[in-house]
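subagent[fold] <- orchestrator: predict structure for attached chain, return tokens only, no commentary.
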Amino acid sequence: MKKRISFITLFALVLSITAMAQEKAKPIKHETMIVRLAEIEVYPEHLQEYLKYANEVDRLSVEREPGVVCLFPMQSAEDSTLIRILEIYASKEAYQSHIKTEHFQKYKQGTMHMVKSLKLPTMKPLDPETMKLIFTKQR
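subagent[fold] -> orchestrator:
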């Protein structure tokens, strides 16, 4: 339970920070947002190189793409080869646009041989009304 509370707290913090950073962007319709928690396992011998790719694509995506609300990479404290990325897109169209970008394609093609496993479960906010508050709280 403690890990779940920590993740929820982290999720809320990330959403607040990204809302501040996106303040001048188009308003986000929370009903159309896509939320994912990418679950990636990297081969140990490729870990450092993978992390460079991941950090670059996450930074460039958030900086350059208004529809990328959040890409927040995390590394397991227990197993450094386990990577989780909280992904939030303004819409399905924003996600489709993201995966076509040059920086995403560079990441995807450059890391395919480094990734042992990848899962991209789409998540549903448990309380969409509270999620709206998270995005406006820090304004």
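orchestrator: received. Logging for downstream: The chain has a mean pLDDT of 83. The first helix runs from residue 2 to 21.
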